[in-house]
Amino acid sequence: MPQTTDRALIAGIANGDAQALRELYKMHGERVYNTALTYLQKSTDAEEVSQDVFTKVWRSAAGFKAESQVTTWLYRIVVNTSLTALKKRQRRSIFGTIQASHDPPDFHHPEAKMEEREENKALFSAIYRLPDRQKTAFVLSYVEELPRQQVAEVMGLSLKAIEGLLMRAKKRLRITLRPAFPD
Predict the structure, then answer these.
(1) How far apart are CA 85 and CA 79, in angstroms?
(2) What is the maximum span of the chain, computed from C-alpha positions, in angstroms?
(3) In total, how many domains does the chain have?
(4) Can you tell me the distance from the alpha carbon of 170 to that of 163, in angstroms, rounded to the nearest whole number?
(5) Are 92 and 119 within one domain?
(6) Among 96, 69, 89, which residue's Cα sits nearest to residue 154?
(7) pLDDT-derived band of residue 153, with 50, 70 and 90 as boundaries?
(8) Which of 66, 100, 134 corresponds to the end of one domain?
(9) Contacts of residue 57, Cβ cutoff 8 Å, sequence gap at least 6
(10) Which of 51, 72, 100 is the last residue of a domain?
(11) Domain span at residue 150?
């Protein structure tokens, strides 16, 4: 079967083609999951968000305006869904239904090398504590390695605003990580 473009898959999904959704999932599911995992730092939550993202794609494919790349649209959905899940988690912790605080879970990114686990744990813990917009700019730029212009499109901000968010995020991360990693 020849490779189908993302836009053709979205058109198929908009017409109710479940196979097109499966194909889009096969192409982008891992990226969606990894992005959600970076935000939520808990695999079960990331799996749930991934399912929610593709449910939203199914429901809203007809409304996709081909003004941006499909991946930009997917990132926007996964970022917003992940941030919503984080807010729900924090609300539940405030009302006592779960025993969590604003502290990040004990998290090891599955792609982290064994010898870098402790550094990555500290880094992801610090990323988890960033304000939402700084976290999003940092995750999309440095973890997902998206071009800055695409980050700006995902976030609906100017390139200059993204650069400012990244500067503030890096400064905050340096301050947070300096005691544990003085070099």
Answers:
(1) 10
(2) 55
(3) 2
(4) 11
(5) no
(6) 69
(7) very high
(8) 100
(9) 10, 13, 21, 24, 74, 77
(10) 100
(11) 103-183
Same domain (yes/no): 51, 125: no
Q: Which amino acid does the sequence have at 108?
A: H
Using one digit for the tens of pLDDT, what is the confidence trace for 24-37?
999 999 999 999 99
**Spatial contact of 33 and 47, defined as CB atoms under 8 Å apart:** yes
Are residues 81 and 6 part of one domain?
yes
CA-to-CA distance for 115 and 108, rounded, in angstroms? 12
Whichever domain contains 77, its CATH number is 1.10.1740.10
Residue 145 near residue 152 (C-beta atoms within 8 A): no
Burial of 142 (0-12, 13-18, 19+ CB in 10 A): middle
Q: Following DSSP, what letter does each residue of the chain receive, concatenated?
A: -PPPPHHHHHHHHHTT-HHHHHHHHHHHHHHHHHHHHHHH--HHHHHHHHHHHHHHHHHHGGG--TTS-HHHHHHHHHHHHHHHHHHHHHHHHHTTSS---SSPP----TTS-GGGHHHHHHHHHHHHTS-HHHHHHHIIIIIS---HHHHHHHHT--HHHHHHHHHHHHHHHHHHHTTT---
Judge whether residue 113 has pLDDT over 60. Answer: no
